[in-house]
Amino acid sequence: MTKKNVKEIGTVGGDGLLSELDVSKILRIAPRTLRAWRRRGYGPKHVNLGKFVRYEPQTVQKFIEDSRQTGSGARAA
Predict the structure, then answer these.
(1) Residues 53-63: what's their mean pLDDT?
(2) What percent helix, strand, coil does the chain show, rounded to 5?
(3) Would the pLDDT of 76 be above 90?
(4) pLDDT higher than threshold 90 for residue 77
């Protein structure tokens, strides 16, 4: 994850909630992967607004931070 990607979290969707497409661009994964993660209970926490799925920028940032690994392959504490 580059600094540019982290910076995008605050700018891709503007102020407020991010769409599935916004988050997939930030994480550089296919929207299909993000949907599969949600079904498995993985990925950033989301909000269901009727038929729409949205993400809070800070939860996406936390997911990225929590996913970082140390040099030994273990996740950072």
Answers:
(1) 96
(2) 45, 15, 40
(3) no
(4) no
Vertex 38: Cα angle to 5 and 28 (nearest 5): 25
Residue 61's nearest CA partner among 35, 29, 23, 13 is: 23
Q: How far is CA 66 from CA 13, 25, 48, 59, in A?
A: 22, 19, 22, 10
Distance of CA 26 to the CA centre of its chain: 7
Per the CB < 8 A criterion, the answer to whether 17 and 47 are in contact is: yes
The predicted structure's pLDDT at residue 15? 64
Domain ranges for the chain, please list them. 3-67
Q: Nearest to residue 9, comparing CAs of 38, 68, 1, 75?
A: 1
pTM confidence score: 0.71
